[in-house]
Write a structure and sequence with these properties.
It is a single chain. The protein has 85 residues and is an all-alpha fold. The protein has one domain. Helices cover 72% and strands 0% of the residues. The chain has 5 helices and no strands. The protein has helices spanning 2-18, 22-29, 33-49, 60-69, 73-81. Helix 3 (33-49) packs parallel to helix 5. The longest helix is centred in the N-terminal third of the chain and has 17 residues, at 2-18. The protein starts with a helix and ends with a helix.
Length: 85
């Protein structure tokens, strides 16, 4: 389980950095570390939800916020990929 979590978390970290602009890369790696960790956490939860349903994703409000209201391209792509949208 730890190996899977490490793999998913590391991959999500890479995805977060690959899907942002150069200026966002700098900000996420310096002044906006909390935002970086938040995005990695959401990506990880969404990925794990495919195998082990997470209670957060049973709530339409949470899905709406993540998939529609938060303007993070990675979240929109994951929402489509994982069938949340």
């Amino acid at each position: 389980m730890n190996e899977v979590q490490d793999t998913v978390v590391q991959t999500c970290g890479k995805l977060v950095m690959l899907t942002v602009s150069n200026s966002e890369k700098v900000a996420l790696s310096t002044t906006q570390r909390e935002e970086f960790h938040y995005r990695v956490d959401v990506c990880t939860k969404m990925t794990i939800n495919r195998v082990h349903p997470q209670p957060e994703f049973e709530k339409k409000e949470i899905i709406r916020v993540i998939c529609d209201e938060i303007k993070v391209n990675l979240f929109k792509k994951l929402c489509k990929r994982y069938g949340l949208r």
